[in-house]
Amino acid sequence: MRTAFFIYDTLTRLGWEGLQREVGWSPPERLNVYWPGPCVFGQIGGSCYFYNGIRLTEPDGRSPDAILHEFGHFVLSRFHGDDPIILACAPTFEHAFPQHTSLHCAWSEGWASFLAAALLGKPRYQGWDLEDPLAHSDFPRIDPVDPHATNADNKWATAAALWDLFDHLPEPWDPHADGWDGPARNGIWTLSTQRGFNLDLGIEEFWLKWVERRPDRLGEAACPMYRLQILLAADPSVSSIPYGLCPPRLVRRLLPGPGRWPVDA
Ligand SMILES: [Zn+2]
After folding, report:
1. What's the mean pLDDT when you consider all of the chain?
2. Cα of 27 to ligand 1 centre, how many Å?
3. How far, in Å, from the CA of 62 to the mean position of ligand 1?
4. Sign, Cα dihedral of 125, 129, 132, 136
5. Following CA atoms 112, 117, 118, 123 in sequence, which dihedral angle do they give, to the nearest 10 degrees?
6. What residues contact residue 62 under an 8 Å CB cut-off, 6+ apart?
7. Cα 53 to averaged position of ligand 1 atoms, centre (Å)
8. How far is the CA of 54 from the centre of ligand 1 (A)?
9. Where does the chain show beta strands of DSSP type E?
10. pLDDT for 133-166, tens place per residue?
11. Percentage of the chain with pLDDT > 70?
């Protein structure tokens, strides 16, 4: 009974009211919560969002991170429909933090984890560090000889990039603080809820929208995304990115690996 009230309190106070306060929007529909209620699909038992319902495992009912992550799926599904969110990681539905999945899966899962972290105001999701994931050996590194390798298909990198844009701590690689919805409301919230957002392209679509709506402030998003190896100079799909936006010496020092990053070329 106590856990049921905890879930209710977390969803209303931090979820609905938090979002209303921060971005002036909250889901108009009601949401059913099943706890403890197993997921009805997928090969991995776990919590999930499934057509207007959140299903939580027994321990997740006591985890504000997990509750708000599933709430995040519900939120994004209000803008882009249920199916693309629920089936984002089909057919395996596997998406461990250090794992490469797909652009679509990494965006859906990373965005939901970012939302939970942002609503809770802490740079972690269930113990995973969103502030400086490169400090951890299990953060995926990109094969420097594979021209198609990128962390855009990794939910940890995706969540960390969004956190970097969001947070107000001036890290050397990220002096920028965009908050929930940056300058003149062309930030994380507006871009990712925008009609026509192509979920299949995940965070690369987010980047394209950023380029479209904030052409004068590309470096603010590009620098954290370079650092996390989401945007790569050699990737033809992001070849339109103007390199040289990040502070030169800074980037050379911060980016991992041998000199493959002509961001200041
Ligand atoms: Zn999820």
Report:
1. 85
2. 18
3. 16
4. negative
5. -130
6. 3, 6
7. 13
8. 10
9. 32-34, 48-49, 53-55, 124-125, 128-129
10. 999 999 998 887 777 788 999 999 999 999 999 9
11. 83
